[in-house]
User: Fold this.
Amino acid sequence: MGQSIEYPQEITYWIVYDTIPDEFVGYGITNPEQVTTTGRKYLWYTLDEIEWENKLLEDFGIVYSPPEILPEP
Assistant:
């Protein structure tokens, strides 16, 4: 069994897990030129970044912090 997000029209925020919410697996962002595929049981996604951040916090206790982009040398 697999689920995927393929070339979404907009940036898509997602969370994958095996049970609700006990087995958290991962989260991420898929851009329109990307494909994300998972073999996990649940793939939850939204176009709303705030909704995604709230779900990470409320269901999994994760505070999202964007990666730091360093300037090129």
Q: What stands out?
A: The chain has a mean pLDDT of 88. The two ends are 44 Å apart (CA to CA). The first strand starts at residue 3 and ends at 6. The chain has one domain: 3-60.
